[in-house]
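Before relying on records like the one below, remember that each one covers exactly one chain. Contacts with other chains, cofactors or solvent are not represented anywhere in the record.
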Amino acid sequence: MVFCTGVYTLAVGTAALQRVGALDAVSRQVHLFTNETYITAQSVCALLSQLAAFYGPRNVPLTLFLDNARYQRCELVQAHARALSIDLEFLPTYSPNLNLIERYWRWVKKQCLNAKYHPDFATMKNAILQTTALAHHNHAAALASLLTWNFQLFPKTQVIT
């Protein structure tokens, strides 16, 4: 299994919805950890535990591709991942195009927020939670088209100085 993790933040006034998620790149299922404070190393550890509980009984090796956020690279997260037998791989800096879940967050934002009015934070939060909960089933075709493994690869080139 290959996963991509990412953080989605939505703030309205003083309220904020923070989500850290992992996208199963094969089945396109998303696992989310949500809070209304900050995403920290403990939040990432909670997501890792959630993934290990879900995939552990299936005896499937887990590899997570992470961006270079400081709270994901810290020793606490790396030690927790080792304890759960989860491999962590870090994407190059400033490369959101390589992270499939960034495409998913953009899709969620389009579904829930573009040209839509939400009278308050609670209504907007509910729309996001409902969209993410039903996306895997109700929007399978759209997600199959969006979450492909099509990346443009470049051959190694020699730099002449």
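The mean pLDDT is 82.
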